[in-house]
Amino acid sequence: MQPLCENVLRTARWRVAHAFGTTVAGWLVVVPLRHITSLAELSGDEAAELGPLLRDLTVALTAVVGCEKTYVAMFAEAVSHVHFHVVPRMADQPAELLGLAGVTFG
């Protein structure tokens, strides 16, 4: 069984985990349950579930960590597996740390 941080939420097609090695509390990673290496490989059902899931995670992060918005990004280079980063952006975040400035990838 995976640790809770690796299984924050599981749907029919996606698993949500806490990111590790980051500088932002609440940073989540959304991973498909099957191995795919390109966004073009998503099934229609996976794609249909992804949008509402990203919205629901943003609502949850707003409630739990008090973020003003979330950034969503996909980088499938370092790990050859499609996964989405959902990063909380706090209202009082300094201007020099907005966007990707100041973000450390693990």
Account of the 3D structure:
With 106 residues, this protein is α+β, with helices and mostly antiparallel strands. It has a domain of 63 residues: 2-Layer Sandwich (HIT family, subunit A), CATH 3.30.428.10. It has 1 helix and 5 strands, in the order βββαββ. A 5-stranded antiparallel β-sheet has the order 1-2-3-5-4, covered by helices on one side. A hairpin with a 3-residue loop joins strand 1 and strand 2. The longest helix has 22 residues. The two termini are 23 Å apart. The model has no long low-confidence stretch (mean pLDDT 86).
Distance between the termini: 23 Å
Number of helices: 1
Low-confidence stretches: none
CATH class of the domain at 1-36 and 66-92: Alpha Beta
Radius of gyration: 14 Å
Biggest sheet architecture: 5 strands, antiparallel
Tell me the helix content.
10-25%
CATH architecture name of the domain at 1-36 and 66-92:
2-Layer Sandwich
User: What is the strand tally?
Assistant: 5
Per CATH, what is the topology of the domain at 1-36 and 66-92? HIT family, subunit A
- Please state how the strands of the largest beta sheet are arranged side by side: 1-2-3-5-4
Shape, per Cα inertia axes: globular
**Overall pLDDT confidence:** 86
Oligomer: single chain
What string, H for helix and E for strand, traces the elements in order?
A: EEEHEE
CATH superfamily of the domain at 1-36 and 66-92: HIT-like
Strand content: 25-35%
